[in-house]
Amino acid sequence: MLKHLHLFSPLSLLFIVSACQPPDQAQELVKEAIEAHGGAAYNNKRIEFDFRTYHLALEHQDGQFSYQRTYRDSTGNRLVETLTNNGFVRTLNGKRQTLDSAQTRRYSQAVNSVAYFVLLPAKLSDPAVLADYVGESQIDGQPYHKVRVRFRAEGGGTDYQDTFFYWFNQQTHTMDYLAYSEGGPRFRKAINPQVVGGIRFQDYINYKGENNDTTSVGTYDRRYQARQLTELSRIEQKNIRVVPLP
Protein backbone atom coordinates (compact mmCIF):
# COMPACT_ATOMS: atom_id res chain seq x y z
CA MET A 1 0.00 0.00 0.00
CA LEU A 2 1.22 3.49 -0.88
CA LYS A 3 2.42 5.89 1.53
CA HIS A 4 4.31 8.86 0.14
CA LEU A 5 6.41 10.51 2.77
CA HIS A 6 6.65 14.20 3.40
CA LEU A 7 9.99 13.17 4.84
CA PHE A 8 11.43 12.67 1.37
CA SER A 9 9.37 15.14 -0.69
CA PRO A 10 6.00 16.87 -0.89
CA LEU A 11 3.18 14.68 -2.05
CA SER A 12 2.68 15.15 -5.80
CA LEU A 13 -0.11 13.56 -7.77
CA LEU A 14 -0.66 13.32 -11.50
CA PHE A 15 -4.23 12.82 -12.73
CA ILE A 16 -4.65 11.54 -16.30
CA VAL A 17 -7.53 12.94 -18.37
CA SER A 18 -9.49 11.96 -21.41
CA ALA A 19 -8.61 14.29 -24.26
CA CYS A 20 -12.18 15.52 -24.72
CA GLN A 21 -12.37 17.03 -21.23
CA PRO A 22 -11.23 20.54 -20.30
CA PRO A 23 -7.77 20.44 -18.69
CA ASP A 24 -8.95 21.91 -15.36
CA GLN A 25 -11.88 19.50 -14.86
CA ALA A 26 -10.17 17.38 -12.22
CA GLN A 27 -8.73 20.37 -10.37
CA GLU A 28 -12.26 21.73 -10.01
CA LEU A 29 -13.52 18.36 -8.78
CA VAL A 30 -10.76 18.21 -6.18
CA LYS A 31 -11.49 21.75 -5.03
CA GLU A 32 -15.21 20.99 -4.70
CA ALA A 33 -14.48 17.79 -2.77
CA ILE A 34 -12.15 19.54 -0.34
CA GLU A 35 -14.83 22.17 0.31
CA ALA A 36 -17.46 19.45 0.81
CA HIS A 37 -15.21 17.75 3.37
CA GLY A 38 -14.35 20.86 5.34
CA GLY A 39 -12.29 23.29 3.26
CA ALA A 40 -10.63 25.86 5.49
CA ALA A 41 -11.56 23.82 8.59
CA TYR A 42 -8.46 21.68 7.94
CA ASN A 43 -6.14 24.65 8.48
CA ASN A 44 -4.30 25.22 11.76
CA LYS A 45 -5.85 22.26 13.52
CA ARG A 46 -4.76 19.35 15.66
CA ILE A 47 -6.68 16.20 14.77
CA GLU A 48 -6.57 13.33 17.24
CA PHE A 49 -8.11 9.87 16.92
CA ASP A 50 -7.65 6.21 17.73
CA PHE A 51 -6.95 3.73 14.95
CA ARG A 52 -6.82 0.10 16.03
CA THR A 53 -4.23 -0.01 18.84
CA TYR A 54 -2.70 3.37 17.94
CA HIS A 55 -3.41 6.94 18.97
CA LEU A 56 -2.61 9.54 16.32
CA ALA A 57 -2.26 13.29 16.43
CA LEU A 58 -2.01 15.23 13.15
CA GLU A 59 -1.12 18.91 13.02
CA HIS A 60 -0.89 21.41 10.15
CA GLN A 61 0.02 25.03 10.74
CA ASP A 62 1.59 27.66 8.47
CA GLY A 63 3.08 25.08 6.10
CA GLN A 64 4.46 22.93 8.90
CA PHE A 65 3.12 19.49 9.75
CA SER A 66 3.54 16.91 12.49
CA TYR A 67 2.12 13.37 12.39
CA GLN A 68 2.54 11.44 15.62
CA ARG A 69 1.62 7.84 16.44
CA THR A 70 1.67 6.55 20.03
CA TYR A 71 1.19 2.94 21.16
CA ARG A 72 2.51 0.19 23.42
CA ASP A 73 4.22 -2.97 22.23
CA SER A 74 3.46 -6.48 23.47
CA THR A 75 5.69 -5.99 26.54
CA GLY A 76 4.14 -2.67 27.55
CA ASN A 77 6.86 -0.37 26.21
CA ARG A 78 5.59 3.03 25.08
CA LEU A 79 6.52 3.96 21.52
CA VAL A 80 6.11 7.42 20.01
CA GLU A 81 6.77 7.91 16.29
CA THR A 82 6.79 11.45 14.90
CA LEU A 83 7.03 12.51 11.25
CA THR A 84 7.55 16.23 10.49
CA ASN A 85 8.94 18.49 7.79
CA ASN A 86 12.33 17.92 9.40
CA GLY A 87 12.33 14.13 9.40
CA PHE A 88 11.30 11.14 11.49
CA VAL A 89 11.95 10.35 15.16
CA ARG A 90 11.03 7.21 17.11
CA THR A 91 11.29 7.00 20.90
CA LEU A 92 11.04 3.99 23.19
CA ASN A 93 9.95 4.88 26.73
CA GLY A 94 11.07 8.44 26.08
CA LYS A 95 14.51 7.54 24.71
CA ARG A 96 15.27 8.30 21.08
CA GLN A 97 16.09 5.23 19.01
CA THR A 98 18.82 4.96 16.41
CA LEU A 99 17.27 3.68 13.16
CA ASP A 100 18.78 2.58 9.88
CA SER A 101 17.32 3.83 6.59
CA ALA A 102 15.10 0.77 6.12
CA GLN A 103 13.60 1.13 9.60
CA THR A 104 13.08 4.86 9.11
CA ARG A 105 11.28 4.24 5.85
CA ARG A 106 9.11 1.44 7.27
CA TYR A 107 7.99 3.25 10.42
CA SER A 108 7.52 6.63 8.77
CA GLN A 109 5.49 5.04 5.97
CA ALA A 110 3.22 3.44 8.56
CA VAL A 111 2.57 6.81 10.22
CA ASN A 112 2.13 8.67 6.94
CA SER A 113 -0.18 5.97 5.57
CA VAL A 114 -2.85 6.50 8.21
CA ALA A 115 -2.51 10.28 8.08
CA TYR A 116 -2.80 10.34 4.29
CA PHE A 117 -6.10 8.50 4.10
CA VAL A 118 -7.66 10.31 7.06
CA LEU A 119 -6.80 13.67 5.49
CA LEU A 120 -8.23 12.87 2.06
CA PRO A 121 -9.34 14.66 -0.02
CA ALA A 122 -7.47 17.61 1.52
CA LYS A 123 -4.16 15.87 0.70
CA LEU A 124 -4.95 16.37 -2.98
CA SER A 125 -4.37 20.12 -2.58
CA ASP A 126 -0.62 19.76 -2.04
CA PRO A 127 1.31 22.20 -4.28
CA ALA A 128 2.72 19.56 -6.64
CA VAL A 129 -0.67 18.04 -7.50
CA LEU A 130 -1.68 17.81 -11.16
CA ALA A 131 -5.24 16.57 -11.70
CA ASP A 132 -6.83 15.12 -14.84
CA TYR A 133 -10.23 13.62 -15.52
CA VAL A 134 -11.01 10.13 -16.87
CA GLY A 135 -14.78 9.92 -17.06
CA GLU A 136 -18.11 9.23 -15.37
CA SER A 137 -19.30 6.21 -13.44
CA GLN A 138 -22.41 4.86 -11.73
CA ILE A 139 -21.98 3.22 -8.32
CA ASP A 140 -24.87 2.10 -6.13
CA GLY A 141 -27.24 4.17 -8.24
CA GLN A 142 -25.29 7.40 -7.82
CA PRO A 143 -23.42 9.34 -10.55
CA TYR A 144 -19.70 9.88 -10.05
CA HIS A 145 -16.75 11.62 -11.65
CA LYS A 146 -13.67 9.38 -11.84
CA VAL A 147 -10.09 10.61 -11.53
CA ARG A 148 -6.93 8.58 -12.04
CA VAL A 149 -3.99 9.58 -9.86
CA ARG A 150 -0.32 9.00 -10.53
CA PHE A 151 2.90 10.61 -9.35
CA ARG A 152 5.64 12.53 -11.08
CA ALA A 153 9.13 11.11 -10.66
CA GLU A 154 10.35 14.57 -9.66
CA GLY A 155 8.92 15.39 -6.26
CA GLY A 156 6.78 12.26 -6.19
CA GLY A 157 8.60 10.46 -3.42
CA THR A 158 10.04 6.98 -3.52
CA ASP A 159 6.71 5.47 -4.62
CA TYR A 160 5.99 7.85 -7.49
CA GLN A 161 4.81 4.99 -9.74
CA ASP A 162 1.79 4.33 -7.50
CA THR A 163 -1.63 4.57 -9.17
CA PHE A 164 -4.90 5.63 -7.56
CA PHE A 165 -8.48 6.24 -8.62
CA TYR A 166 -10.96 8.49 -6.83
CA TRP A 167 -14.72 8.72 -7.31
CA PHE A 168 -16.37 12.08 -6.53
CA ASN A 169 -20.14 12.19 -6.09
CA GLN A 170 -21.63 14.45 -8.76
CA GLN A 171 -24.39 15.67 -6.42
CA THR A 172 -22.68 16.01 -3.02
CA HIS A 173 -19.08 16.43 -4.31
CA THR A 174 -17.88 14.04 -1.61
CA MET A 175 -15.11 11.49 -2.14
CA ASP A 176 -17.07 8.27 -1.65
CA TYR A 177 -14.76 5.64 -3.17
CA LEU A 178 -11.09 5.16 -3.92
CA ALA A 179 -8.88 2.40 -5.28
CA TYR A 180 -5.16 1.64 -5.47
CA SER A 181 -2.92 -1.23 -6.51
CA GLU A 182 0.21 -1.00 -4.38
CA GLY A 183 0.43 -3.66 -1.67
CA GLY A 184 -2.38 -5.56 -3.34
CA PRO A 185 -5.38 -4.23 -5.31
CA ARG A 186 -7.85 -2.46 -3.03
CA PHE A 187 -11.19 -0.68 -3.37
CA ARG A 188 -12.52 1.39 -0.48
CA LYS A 189 -16.10 2.47 0.11
CA ALA A 190 -16.68 5.37 2.50
CA ILE A 191 -19.14 4.69 5.35
CA ASN A 192 -20.19 6.31 8.63
CA PRO A 193 -19.43 9.93 7.71
CA GLN A 194 -19.29 12.29 10.66
CA VAL A 195 -18.43 15.97 10.95
CA VAL A 196 -16.10 16.95 13.81
CA GLY A 197 -14.75 20.48 14.08
CA GLY A 198 -16.15 21.28 10.65
CA ILE A 199 -14.26 18.39 8.99
CA ARG A 200 -15.96 15.38 7.41
CA PHE A 201 -14.35 12.12 8.53
CA GLN A 202 -15.17 8.75 6.97
CA ASP A 203 -14.63 5.09 7.79
CA TYR A 204 -14.14 2.64 4.94
CA ILE A 205 -15.02 -0.86 3.91
CA ASN A 206 -11.79 -2.19 2.40
CA TYR A 207 -12.34 -4.61 -0.49
CA LYS A 208 -9.66 -6.61 -2.26
CA GLY A 209 -9.15 -8.07 -5.69
CA GLU A 210 -6.97 -11.01 -6.57
CA ASN A 211 -3.25 -10.34 -6.10
CA ASN A 212 -2.44 -11.93 -9.47
CA ASP A 213 -5.15 -9.95 -11.27
CA THR A 214 -3.63 -7.55 -13.79
CA THR A 215 -6.91 -5.69 -14.35
CA SER A 216 -6.58 -1.96 -13.68
CA VAL A 217 -8.03 -0.85 -10.36
CA GLY A 218 -9.75 1.79 -12.47
CA THR A 219 -12.29 -0.91 -13.32
CA TYR A 220 -12.96 -1.74 -9.67
CA ASP A 221 -16.11 0.36 -9.61
CA ARG A 222 -17.58 -2.11 -12.11
CA ARG A 223 -16.11 -5.06 -10.25
CA TYR A 224 -17.68 -3.78 -7.04
CA GLN A 225 -21.05 -3.36 -8.74
CA ALA A 226 -20.78 -6.94 -10.04
CA ARG A 227 -20.00 -8.15 -6.48
CA GLN A 228 -16.63 -9.49 -7.63
CA LEU A 229 -14.61 -7.96 -4.78
CA THR A 230 -14.18 -9.50 -1.34
CA GLU A 231 -14.39 -7.48 1.89
CA LEU A 232 -10.99 -7.55 3.56
CA SER A 233 -11.31 -5.22 6.53
CA ARG A 234 -12.88 -2.11 8.02
CA ILE A 235 -10.88 1.11 8.34
CA GLU A 236 -12.26 3.01 11.32
CA GLN A 237 -11.22 6.09 13.28
CA LYS A 238 -12.58 6.37 16.80
CA ASN A 239 -12.68 9.14 19.44
CA ILE A 240 -12.00 11.89 16.92
CA ARG A 241 -11.13 15.33 18.32
CA VAL A 242 -10.34 18.50 16.40
CA VAL A 243 -8.63 21.30 18.31
CA PRO A 244 -7.63 24.72 16.89
CA LEU A 245 -3.92 25.47 17.15
CA PRO A 246 -2.85 28.76 18.73
From TrEMBL:
Alphabetized PROSITE patterns for the sequence: PROKAR_LIPOPROTEIN (PS51257)
Pfam families attached to this UniProt entry: DUF6503
InterPro entries the UniProt entry points to: DUF6503
Protein name per Swiss-Prot or TrEMBL: Deoxyribose-phosphate aldolase
Organism: Spirosoma sordidisoli
